Amino acid sequence: MSTTPTPPLCPHNPDRRALSGMRPTGPLHLGHYFGAIKNWVEMQEELESYFFVADWHALTSDYADTSGIKTYIDEMVLDWLAAGLDPEKSVIYLQSAIQGLAELHLILSMITPLGWLERCPTYKEQQQNIAGKDLGNYGFLGYPVLMTADIIIARARWVPVGADQLPHLELSREITRRFNSLYGEVFPEPAARLTPSAKCPGLDGRKMSKSYDNGIFLRESMEEITPKVRGMLTDAARLRRHDPGNPENCNLYPYHELLSSPDERTEIRAGCLSASMGCVDCKNILLQGLAAFLAPIHEKRTALQGKSGLIRDILAAGLEKAQREYSLTMDAVRSAMRLKY
Ligand code: TRP
Known about the structure:
The N and C termini lie close together (10 Å). It is elongated, with a radius of gyration of 22 Å. 52% of the residues lie in helices and 7% in strands. Strand 4 (158-161), helix 9 (166-183) and strand 5 form a beta-alpha-beta unit. It is mostly helical. It has 14 helices and five strands. The strands form two sheets. It has a three-stranded parallel sheet. A two-stranded parallel ribbon has the order 4-5. Tryptophan binds at residues 19-23, 54, 57, 147, 150-151, 159, 161, 165.
């Protein structure tokens, strides 16, 4: 048997490299922004950052109706840019365009024990909770295997994700360790960089999600948002204007934590607890905060929207940069596994 040595990888420091992805499932809402994008935008200043559109991951559950994916891809990248991702600083690409990724996924599927995947809490949960979709498919079970391939093909250390992704990250670490112990230390072990847990619940207090119809979307105008905020339930025990309320029991208050200044928050808390401020006034402060937050995002979005071919060009440039790196990874994988026949 030949013993081709593993070629040295292009020297890079894995501790300086971050990668994350997002499924193109619809327009971005505040939950996406505060749960992920804000962190990504900060991270691109600090680390060599790769961000990709996880269109294959969208297929794991939405395989039956693929009609929306193409539009969602373009729209999501536009939202990313409007919210501050900068293609000069980050590498932005489309998952399905990467050569070698499907191969790495297949290789990892060989070394991943079924039990690890079946025990994954998100797998069990989603199988039970997502009504109207049959998630008994092989690809859905392998979701974390594909996610592992996404991460390690970039030989990235840091994976900025929300807490909901931690079980997947744990599996990625295990699969990576397994690969390295079988074939040699090709990959750095990935680690989660948790998004500081600023909670942005939906308008009804549940998780913000398109499928719950409880979101505020980054692209929405204040005309669209205002009635949504006006209709939000506040502290249900505060029946009349002069009853004192409790911010802890209010669907609105968490938004003040994200969008209002510390001084405003002090005023709001005191006003609510003493009934000197009513819910209408409190909502008006929030609407002002939202308008100020969204104005620069809308402005950027409008400017970018006019540039035809922009998204395609950004994805093409990102693909080229990523592919250069990832081809080196795949070469190392094939060598380490003695698959160069
Ligand atoms: N599973 C992630 C989510 O739903 C998206 C994702 C796919 C991802 N591949 C990834 C995130 C790799 C981080 C790294 O949010």
